[in-house]
Amino acid sequence: MISKLTKIVATISDLRCEPEHIKDLYDAGVNVIRLNTAHQSHEDTIKVIENVRKISNKIALMIDTKGPEVRTANIENPIIVKTGDKVIISTLPINEPNSLQTNYDGFVKEVPQGSKVLIDDGELEMTVVSKLPDRLICEIKNDGQIKNKKSINTPGISLKLQSVTEKDRGFIELAAKYNVDFIAHSFVRHSKDVQDVQKILNAIGNPDVKIISKIENQEGIDNIEEIVKASYGIMVARGDMGVEIPAEDVPIAQLKITQTCIKYGIPVITATQMLHTMIENPRPTRAEVSDIANAILNGTDAIMLSGETAYGKYPIEAVKMMTNIAKKVEKHRKRTLYKDELFYDKSTTRNYIIKCAIDATKIMDVKAIIVDSLKGKTARIMATYRASVPLFITTNSERLARELTLSYGVYSNLVDNNFKRTTEFVVTSLKILKEQGIVTDKDTVIIISGNPNRDIDKGTEFMEINTVEDAIKGRNI
After folding, report:
1. pTM attached to this predicted model
2. Which domains, from first to last, does the chain contain?
3. Among residues 37, 102, 258, 272, which one is catalytic?
4. What are 423-444's pLDDT values in tens digits?
5. Which residue of 90, 136, 277, 454 is surrounded by the most CB atoms within 10 Å?
6. Any residues with CB less than 8 A from the CB of 331 and at least 6 apart, and which?
7. Which of 299, 266, 274, 301 shows the shortest CA–CA distance to 381?
8. Does residue 71 have an active-site annotation?
9. Is-catalytic flag, 272?
Protein backbone atom coordinates (compact mmCIF):
# COMPACT_ATOMS: atom_id res chain seq x y z
CA MET A 1 0.00 0.00 0.00
CA ILE A 2 1.10 3.58 -0.66
CA SER A 3 1.24 5.30 2.72
CA LYS A 4 2.53 8.76 1.77
CA LEU A 5 3.00 11.06 -1.21
CA THR A 6 6.08 12.96 0.03
CA LYS A 7 9.32 11.14 -0.76
CA ILE A 8 12.12 10.42 1.74
CA VAL A 9 15.86 10.54 1.04
CA ALA A 10 18.05 8.81 3.64
CA THR A 11 21.83 9.08 3.96
CA ILE A 12 23.79 5.93 4.81
CA SER A 13 27.44 4.90 4.80
CA ASP A 14 29.43 1.70 4.44
CA LEU A 15 29.59 1.47 8.24
CA ARG A 16 25.91 0.56 8.39
CA CYS A 17 24.75 -0.73 5.02
CA GLU A 18 23.84 -4.37 5.56
CA PRO A 19 21.06 -5.50 3.19
CA GLU A 20 18.79 -6.17 6.17
CA HIS A 21 19.26 -2.60 7.41
CA ILE A 22 18.57 -1.16 3.96
CA LYS A 23 15.39 -3.25 3.73
CA ASP A 24 14.25 -1.92 7.11
CA LEU A 25 14.78 1.65 5.87
CA TYR A 26 12.90 0.89 2.64
CA ASP A 27 10.00 -0.72 4.49
CA ALA A 28 9.82 2.30 6.82
CA GLY A 29 9.35 4.67 3.87
CA VAL A 30 12.72 5.50 2.26
CA ASN A 31 12.61 6.10 -1.50
CA VAL A 32 16.18 7.26 -2.21
CA ILE A 33 19.49 6.28 -0.60
CA ARG A 34 22.09 9.07 -0.48
CA LEU A 35 25.85 8.58 -0.18
CA ASN A 36 27.98 11.46 1.10
CA THR A 37 31.34 11.24 -0.67
CA ALA A 38 32.93 13.69 1.76
CA HIS A 39 33.22 10.74 4.14
CA GLN A 40 33.62 7.72 1.84
CA SER A 41 36.13 6.06 -0.49
CA HIS A 42 35.24 4.55 -3.86
CA GLU A 43 35.33 1.08 -2.32
CA ASP A 44 32.96 2.15 0.46
CA THR A 45 30.56 3.63 -2.08
CA ILE A 46 30.55 0.55 -4.31
CA LYS A 47 29.74 -1.62 -1.29
CA VAL A 48 26.65 0.45 -0.50
CA ILE A 49 25.51 0.53 -4.14
CA GLU A 50 25.72 -3.25 -4.43
CA ASN A 51 23.82 -3.81 -1.18
CA VAL A 52 21.04 -1.40 -2.13
CA ARG A 53 20.59 -3.14 -5.48
CA LYS A 54 20.23 -6.48 -3.66
CA ILE A 55 17.12 -5.21 -1.88
CA SER A 56 15.06 -3.55 -4.62
CA ASN A 57 15.43 -2.17 -8.12
CA LYS A 58 12.97 0.55 -7.11
CA ILE A 59 15.30 2.23 -4.59
CA ALA A 60 17.09 5.14 -6.24
CA LEU A 61 20.73 5.95 -5.46
CA MET A 62 22.15 9.45 -5.05
CA ILE A 63 25.85 10.26 -4.83
CA ASP A 64 26.57 13.60 -3.18
CA THR A 65 29.79 15.29 -4.30
CA LYS A 66 31.91 17.16 -1.79
CA GLY A 67 32.21 20.16 -4.10
CA PRO A 68 34.64 23.07 -3.91
CA GLU A 69 35.35 24.31 -0.42
CA VAL A 70 37.77 26.44 1.56
CA ARG A 71 39.29 24.99 4.73
CA THR A 72 41.97 25.78 7.28
CA ALA A 73 45.29 24.05 6.58
CA ASN A 74 48.55 23.06 8.28
CA ILE A 75 47.43 23.81 11.86
CA GLU A 76 49.32 21.43 14.17
CA ASN A 77 47.67 22.51 17.42
CA PRO A 78 44.36 24.36 17.94
CA ILE A 79 44.71 28.15 18.02
CA ILE A 80 42.87 29.47 21.10
CA VAL A 81 41.43 32.96 20.48
CA LYS A 82 39.38 35.50 22.42
CA THR A 83 37.15 38.36 21.36
CA GLY A 84 39.24 41.24 20.00
CA ASP A 85 42.31 39.14 19.17
CA LYS A 86 43.96 39.58 15.79
CA VAL A 87 44.51 36.60 13.49
CA ILE A 88 46.48 36.35 10.24
CA ILE A 89 45.05 34.38 7.32
CA SER A 90 47.37 33.51 4.45
CA THR A 91 47.70 31.00 1.65
CA LEU A 92 51.39 30.53 2.49
CA PRO A 93 53.12 29.34 5.67
CA ILE A 94 53.70 32.25 8.10
CA ASN A 95 55.75 31.63 11.21
CA GLU A 96 53.92 34.10 13.44
CA PRO A 97 51.56 33.69 16.42
CA ASN A 98 47.83 33.38 15.65
CA SER A 99 48.41 32.72 11.96
CA LEU A 100 46.68 30.14 9.78
CA GLN A 101 46.65 28.99 6.18
CA THR A 102 43.80 28.19 3.83
CA ASN A 103 43.77 25.55 1.09
CA TYR A 104 42.55 28.03 -1.55
CA ASP A 105 45.29 30.03 -3.26
CA GLY A 106 43.00 32.90 -4.28
CA PHE A 107 41.62 33.56 -0.81
CA VAL A 108 43.71 36.62 0.15
CA LYS A 109 43.29 38.20 -3.27
CA GLU A 110 39.51 37.70 -3.50
CA VAL A 111 38.34 38.54 0.03
CA PRO A 112 38.11 42.33 0.53
CA GLN A 113 38.67 44.35 3.67
CA GLY A 114 35.54 44.54 5.81
CA SER A 115 34.41 41.02 4.93
CA LYS A 116 33.03 38.58 7.48
CA VAL A 117 34.92 35.27 7.75
CA LEU A 118 33.35 32.28 9.51
CA ILE A 119 35.28 29.22 10.71
CA ASP A 120 33.92 25.73 11.45
CA ASP A 121 30.34 26.16 10.17
CA GLY A 122 30.06 29.58 11.78
CA GLU A 123 31.25 28.61 15.26
CA LEU A 124 33.92 31.34 15.12
CA GLU A 125 33.42 34.75 13.52
CA MET A 126 36.02 37.30 12.48
CA THR A 127 36.17 40.44 10.35
CA VAL A 128 38.90 41.42 7.89
CA VAL A 129 40.25 44.70 9.29
CA SER A 130 43.36 45.00 7.11
CA LYS A 131 44.63 43.52 3.87
CA LEU A 132 48.23 43.07 2.68
CA PRO A 133 49.43 41.38 -0.54
CA ASP A 134 50.16 38.09 1.22
CA ARG A 135 47.74 38.09 4.16
CA LEU A 136 44.46 39.20 5.74
CA ILE A 137 44.44 40.65 9.25
CA CYS A 138 41.22 39.65 11.01
CA GLU A 139 39.64 40.62 14.33
CA ILE A 140 37.98 37.84 16.35
CA LYS A 141 34.32 38.47 17.29
CA ASN A 142 33.80 35.64 19.79
CA ASP A 143 35.88 33.32 21.94
CA GLY A 144 36.78 29.98 20.40
CA GLN A 145 39.47 27.90 18.78
CA ILE A 146 40.69 27.28 15.25
CA LYS A 147 41.49 23.69 14.28
CA ASN A 148 42.95 22.10 11.18
CA LYS A 149 40.77 21.29 8.14
CA LYS A 150 37.76 23.26 9.38
CA SER A 151 35.43 25.01 6.94
CA ILE A 152 35.90 28.67 6.04
CA ASN A 153 32.90 30.67 4.80
CA THR A 154 32.82 34.21 3.46
CA PRO A 155 29.13 35.24 3.37
CA GLY A 156 28.30 37.50 0.45
CA ILE A 157 31.69 37.03 -1.22
CA SER A 158 31.86 35.12 -4.50
CA LEU A 159 35.11 33.17 -4.61
CA LYS A 160 36.40 31.92 -7.96
CA LEU A 161 36.49 28.28 -6.94
CA GLN A 162 36.44 25.55 -9.58
CA SER A 163 33.00 23.95 -9.78
CA VAL A 164 34.24 20.35 -9.99
CA THR A 165 37.24 19.13 -8.00
CA GLU A 166 39.35 16.12 -8.96
CA LYS A 167 37.74 14.17 -6.14
CA ASP A 168 34.31 15.11 -7.47
CA ARG A 169 35.29 14.00 -10.97
CA GLY A 170 36.30 10.58 -9.65
CA PHE A 171 32.95 10.07 -7.95
CA ILE A 172 31.01 11.36 -10.97
CA GLU A 173 32.82 8.80 -13.12
CA LEU A 174 32.03 6.09 -10.55
CA ALA A 175 28.36 7.11 -10.54
CA ALA A 176 28.25 6.81 -14.32
CA LYS A 177 29.98 3.43 -14.31
CA TYR A 178 27.56 1.95 -11.75
CA ASN A 179 24.42 3.58 -13.22
CA VAL A 180 23.70 5.60 -10.11
CA ASP A 181 20.47 7.54 -10.60
CA PHE A 182 21.35 10.98 -9.23
CA ILE A 183 24.42 13.12 -8.62
CA ALA A 184 23.81 15.83 -6.02
CA HIS A 185 26.46 18.42 -6.80
CA SER A 186 27.49 20.71 -3.96
CA PHE A 187 27.75 24.52 -3.95
CA VAL A 188 26.11 25.11 -7.33
CA ARG A 189 26.22 28.85 -8.03
CA HIS A 190 25.49 29.11 -11.76
CA SER A 191 24.04 26.98 -14.54
CA LYS A 192 27.62 26.52 -15.77
CA ASP A 193 28.37 24.45 -12.66
CA VAL A 194 25.64 22.02 -13.72
CA GLN A 195 26.92 22.00 -17.29
CA ASP A 196 30.42 21.14 -16.07
CA VAL A 197 29.07 17.97 -14.42
CA GLN A 198 27.00 17.11 -17.48
CA LYS A 199 30.07 17.40 -19.73
CA ILE A 200 31.86 14.78 -17.64
CA LEU A 201 28.87 12.43 -17.86
CA ASN A 202 28.64 12.97 -21.61
CA ALA A 203 32.34 12.26 -22.06
CA ILE A 204 32.06 9.03 -20.05
CA GLY A 205 29.12 7.89 -22.16
CA ASN A 206 26.37 7.91 -19.54
CA PRO A 207 24.56 11.24 -19.98
CA ASP A 208 21.35 9.94 -18.38
CA VAL A 209 22.56 10.22 -14.78
CA LYS A 210 20.42 13.06 -13.41
CA ILE A 211 21.96 16.10 -11.74
CA ILE A 212 20.54 17.51 -8.51
CA SER A 213 21.92 20.99 -7.79
CA LYS A 214 22.55 21.77 -4.13
CA ILE A 215 21.81 25.40 -3.32
CA GLU A 216 23.97 26.46 -0.39
CA ASN A 217 24.80 30.17 -0.68
CA GLN A 218 23.45 33.56 -1.73
CA GLU A 219 24.87 33.26 -5.23
CA GLY A 220 22.94 30.04 -5.83
CA ILE A 221 19.77 31.62 -4.45
CA ASP A 222 20.17 34.69 -6.67
CA ASN A 223 20.66 32.50 -9.76
CA ILE A 224 18.01 29.92 -8.91
CA GLU A 225 16.02 30.26 -12.15
CA GLU A 226 18.98 29.60 -14.44
CA ILE A 227 20.12 26.73 -12.20
CA VAL A 228 16.63 25.17 -12.15
CA LYS A 229 16.46 25.30 -15.95
CA ALA A 230 19.76 23.40 -16.19
CA SER A 231 19.05 20.78 -13.48
CA TYR A 232 16.93 17.66 -13.07
CA GLY A 233 16.20 18.66 -9.47
CA ILE A 234 17.24 20.92 -6.61
CA MET A 235 18.30 20.28 -3.03
CA VAL A 236 17.76 23.05 -0.48
CA ALA A 237 20.93 22.37 1.52
CA ARG A 238 20.20 24.39 4.63
CA GLY A 239 23.38 23.52 6.54
CA ASP A 240 25.91 25.60 4.64
CA MET A 241 23.13 27.95 3.55
CA GLY A 242 22.54 28.82 7.21
CA VAL A 243 26.19 29.82 7.49
CA GLU A 244 26.38 31.71 4.20
CA ILE A 245 23.21 33.76 4.78
CA PRO A 246 21.53 34.97 8.00
CA ALA A 247 19.58 32.17 9.68
CA GLU A 248 16.37 34.20 9.58
CA ASP A 249 16.64 34.39 5.78
CA VAL A 250 16.81 30.60 5.29
CA PRO A 251 13.02 29.94 5.48
CA ILE A 252 12.35 32.63 2.88
CA ALA A 253 15.06 31.25 0.59
CA GLN A 254 13.66 27.74 1.09
CA LEU A 255 10.18 28.89 0.03
CA LYS A 256 11.54 30.81 -2.98
CA ILE A 257 13.53 27.80 -4.19
CA THR A 258 10.60 25.42 -3.66
CA GLN A 259 8.20 27.61 -5.62
CA THR A 260 10.70 28.08 -8.45
CA CYS A 261 11.09 24.31 -8.77
CA ILE A 262 7.31 23.88 -8.86
CA LYS A 263 7.04 26.59 -11.50
CA TYR A 264 9.44 24.75 -13.80
CA GLY A 265 8.22 21.25 -12.95
CA ILE A 266 11.35 19.76 -11.36
CA PRO A 267 11.72 17.89 -8.04
CA VAL A 268 12.87 19.73 -4.93
CA ILE A 269 14.40 18.16 -1.80
CA THR A 270 14.38 19.93 1.57
CA ALA A 271 17.43 18.87 3.57
CA THR A 272 19.51 19.26 6.74
CA GLN A 273 18.73 18.80 10.44
CA MET A 274 15.09 17.85 9.87
CA LEU A 275 15.17 15.36 12.77
CA HIS A 276 18.61 16.23 14.15
CA THR A 277 17.57 15.46 17.73
CA MET A 278 16.93 11.84 16.75
CA ILE A 279 20.63 11.27 16.19
CA GLU A 280 20.79 10.84 19.96
CA ASN A 281 17.16 10.69 21.12
CA PRO A 282 14.20 8.46 20.22
CA ARG A 283 11.80 11.39 19.77
CA PRO A 284 12.07 14.69 17.86
CA THR A 285 11.42 18.18 19.16
CA ARG A 286 8.11 19.89 18.35
CA ALA A 287 10.07 22.39 16.27
CA GLU A 288 11.52 19.60 14.11
CA VAL A 289 8.07 18.14 13.51
CA SER A 290 6.82 21.59 12.51
CA ASP A 291 9.83 22.05 10.21
CA ILE A 292 8.97 18.88 8.29
CA ALA A 293 5.28 19.76 8.21
CA ASN A 294 5.94 23.25 6.86
CA ALA A 295 8.29 21.93 4.17
CA ILE A 296 5.47 19.64 2.98
CA LEU A 297 2.87 22.41 3.22
CA ASN A 298 5.16 24.64 1.16
CA GLY A 299 5.24 21.98 -1.55
CA THR A 300 8.52 20.06 -1.29
CA ASP A 301 8.73 16.80 -3.25
CA ALA A 302 11.08 15.14 -0.81
CA ILE A 303 12.49 15.48 2.69
CA MET A 304 15.95 14.27 3.65
CA LEU A 305 17.70 12.64 6.59
CA SER A 306 21.47 13.01 7.01
CA GLY A 307 23.18 12.13 10.29
CA GLU A 308 19.90 10.71 11.59
CA THR A 309 20.29 7.65 9.35
CA ALA A 310 24.02 7.81 8.55
CA TYR A 311 25.26 7.37 12.12
CA GLY A 312 22.36 8.16 14.47
CA LYS A 313 21.11 5.82 17.18
CA TYR A 314 17.55 5.66 15.84
CA PRO A 315 17.66 5.47 12.01
CA ILE A 316 14.53 3.37 11.47
CA GLU A 317 12.57 5.34 14.04
CA ALA A 318 13.57 8.59 12.29
CA VAL A 319 12.27 7.33 8.94
CA LYS A 320 9.03 6.12 10.52
CA MET A 321 8.61 9.49 12.21
CA MET A 322 9.05 11.29 8.88
CA THR A 323 6.58 8.94 7.23
CA ASN A 324 3.98 9.51 9.94
CA ILE A 325 4.37 13.29 9.80
CA ALA A 326 4.01 13.25 6.01
CA LYS A 327 0.89 11.07 6.12
CA LYS A 328 -0.77 13.32 8.68
CA VAL A 329 0.10 16.62 6.98
CA GLU A 330 -0.91 15.41 3.51
CA LYS A 331 -4.39 14.50 4.80
CA HIS A 332 -5.05 17.85 6.43
CA ARG A 333 -3.70 20.32 3.93
CA LYS A 334 -5.70 21.93 1.15
CA ARG A 335 -6.18 19.80 -1.93
CA THR A 336 -4.30 22.25 -4.11
CA LEU A 337 -1.70 24.71 -2.90
CA TYR A 338 -0.74 26.84 -5.82
CA LYS A 339 -2.17 29.37 -8.20
CA ASP A 340 -2.51 28.38 -11.83
CA GLU A 341 0.13 30.83 -13.01
CA LEU A 342 2.84 28.80 -11.29
CA PHE A 343 2.35 25.99 -13.76
CA TYR A 344 2.97 25.03 -17.33
CA ASP A 345 1.36 26.62 -20.37
CA LYS A 346 -1.99 24.83 -20.58
CA SER A 347 -2.49 25.58 -24.26
CA THR A 348 -0.83 22.27 -25.19
CA THR A 349 -3.00 19.14 -25.31
CA ARG A 350 -0.94 17.33 -22.68
CA ASN A 351 -0.91 20.16 -20.19
CA TYR A 352 -4.61 20.89 -20.61
CA ILE A 353 -5.45 17.22 -19.97
CA ILE A 354 -3.23 17.24 -16.89
CA LYS A 355 -5.04 20.31 -15.53
CA CYS A 356 -8.44 18.67 -16.16
CA ALA A 357 -7.34 15.52 -14.34
CA ILE A 358 -6.14 17.50 -11.33
CA ASP A 359 -9.41 19.46 -11.23
CA ALA A 360 -11.34 16.18 -11.26
CA THR A 361 -9.53 14.96 -8.13
CA LYS A 362 -10.81 18.03 -6.26
CA ILE A 363 -14.49 17.24 -6.79
CA MET A 364 -14.62 13.46 -7.30
CA ASP A 365 -13.77 10.51 -5.10
CA VAL A 366 -10.76 9.35 -7.13
CA LYS A 367 -8.54 6.59 -5.78
CA ALA A 368 -5.55 6.95 -8.12
CA ILE A 369 -4.29 8.46 -11.36
CA ILE A 370 -2.83 6.05 -13.93
CA VAL A 371 -0.28 7.80 -16.15
CA ASP A 372 1.07 6.50 -19.45
CA SER A 373 4.39 8.36 -19.31
CA LEU A 374 6.99 6.83 -21.61
CA LYS A 375 9.80 9.20 -20.59
CA GLY A 376 8.34 10.50 -17.33
CA LYS A 377 7.57 14.05 -18.48
CA THR A 378 3.80 13.82 -18.03
CA ALA A 379 4.21 12.26 -14.58
CA ARG A 380 6.65 14.98 -13.48
CA ILE A 381 4.35 17.77 -14.66
CA MET A 382 1.41 16.18 -12.86
CA ALA A 383 3.50 15.93 -9.71
CA THR A 384 3.94 19.72 -9.63
CA TYR A 385 0.22 20.09 -8.91
CA ARG A 386 0.65 18.07 -5.69
CA ALA A 387 -2.52 16.04 -6.25
CA SER A 388 -4.19 14.50 -3.21
CA VAL A 389 -4.07 11.00 -4.75
CA PRO A 390 -1.05 8.97 -5.92
CA LEU A 391 0.07 8.79 -9.55
CA PHE A 392 1.11 5.41 -10.95
CA ILE A 393 3.12 4.59 -14.03
CA THR A 394 3.93 1.12 -15.37
CA THR A 395 7.24 0.83 -17.19
CA ASN A 396 9.92 -1.64 -18.23
CA SER A 397 12.63 0.97 -17.55
CA GLU A 398 14.29 0.60 -14.15
CA ARG A 399 16.07 3.91 -14.68
CA LEU A 400 12.81 5.79 -15.28
CA ALA A 401 11.15 4.11 -12.31
CA ARG A 402 13.97 5.23 -10.03
CA GLU A 403 14.15 8.74 -11.49
CA LEU A 404 10.52 9.26 -10.54
CA THR A 405 11.19 8.31 -6.91
CA LEU A 406 11.94 11.99 -6.26
CA SER A 407 8.63 13.28 -7.68
CA TYR A 408 5.80 13.95 -5.25
CA GLY A 409 3.12 11.27 -5.27
CA VAL A 410 4.55 9.32 -8.23
CA TYR A 411 5.03 5.56 -7.88
CA SER A 412 6.18 3.09 -10.51
CA ASN A 413 5.52 -0.58 -11.23
CA LEU A 414 8.11 -2.47 -13.27
CA VAL A 415 7.14 -4.99 -15.95
CA ASP A 416 9.18 -6.99 -18.45
CA ASN A 417 7.26 -6.16 -21.60
CA ASN A 418 7.32 -3.02 -23.71
CA PHE A 419 3.74 -1.93 -24.42
CA LYS A 420 2.81 -1.53 -28.08
CA ARG A 421 -0.56 0.15 -27.48
CA THR A 422 -2.13 2.15 -24.67
CA THR A 423 -4.83 -0.51 -24.18
CA GLU A 424 -2.21 -2.99 -22.98
CA PHE A 425 -0.70 -0.39 -20.68
CA VAL A 426 -4.01 0.51 -19.02
CA VAL A 427 -5.19 -3.07 -18.43
CA THR A 428 -1.80 -4.22 -17.13
CA SER A 429 -1.48 -1.21 -14.83
CA LEU A 430 -4.93 -1.66 -13.32
CA LYS A 431 -4.45 -5.39 -12.78
CA ILE A 432 -1.15 -4.76 -10.97
CA LEU A 433 -2.76 -2.15 -8.70
CA LYS A 434 -5.59 -4.59 -7.92
CA GLU A 435 -3.09 -7.31 -7.02
CA GLN A 436 -1.25 -4.87 -4.75
CA GLY A 437 -4.49 -4.00 -2.95
CA ILE A 438 -4.23 -0.33 -3.93
CA VAL A 439 -7.52 -0.29 -5.90
CA THR A 440 -10.63 -2.47 -6.12
CA ASP A 441 -13.01 -3.06 -9.04
CA LYS A 442 -15.42 -0.41 -7.77
CA ASP A 443 -12.83 2.33 -7.20
CA THR A 444 -12.81 5.31 -9.54
CA VAL A 445 -9.52 6.07 -11.29
CA ILE A 446 -8.32 8.64 -13.81
CA ILE A 447 -6.40 7.31 -16.81
CA ILE A 448 -4.02 9.61 -18.70
CA SER A 449 -2.56 8.14 -21.87
CA GLY A 450 -1.97 8.45 -25.58
CA ASN A 451 -4.80 8.02 -28.05
CA PRO A 452 -6.10 4.41 -27.67
CA ASN A 453 -6.25 4.11 -31.45
CA ARG A 454 -2.60 5.03 -31.98
CA ASP A 455 0.80 3.69 -31.04
CA ILE A 456 1.81 4.32 -27.45
CA ASP A 457 4.63 6.79 -28.19
CA LYS A 458 2.51 9.54 -29.77
CA GLY A 459 2.17 11.59 -26.59
CA THR A 460 -0.56 12.40 -24.05
CA GLU A 461 -3.90 12.89 -25.83
CA PHE A 462 -6.52 11.05 -23.77
CA MET A 463 -8.21 11.16 -20.35
CA GLU A 464 -10.74 8.72 -18.95
CA ILE A 465 -12.57 8.71 -15.60
CA ASN A 466 -13.97 5.27 -14.86
CA THR A 467 -14.22 2.47 -12.34
CA VAL A 468 -11.42 -0.07 -12.45
CA GLU A 469 -13.83 -2.82 -13.47
CA ASP A 470 -15.37 -0.91 -16.37
CA ALA A 471 -12.02 0.43 -17.57
CA ILE A 472 -10.73 -3.14 -17.94
CA LYS A 473 -13.95 -4.53 -19.46
CA GLY A 474 -14.13 -1.73 -22.00
CA ARG A 475 -10.79 -2.76 -23.46
CA ASN A 476 -11.71 -6.42 -24.06
CA ILE A 477 -8.32 -7.92 -23.19
Report:
1. 0.93
2. 7-67+163-331 (3.20.20.60), 72-153 (2.40.33.10), 340-473 (3.40.1380.20)
3. 272
4. 888 999 999 999 999 999 999 9
5. 136
6. none
7. 266
8. yes
9. yes
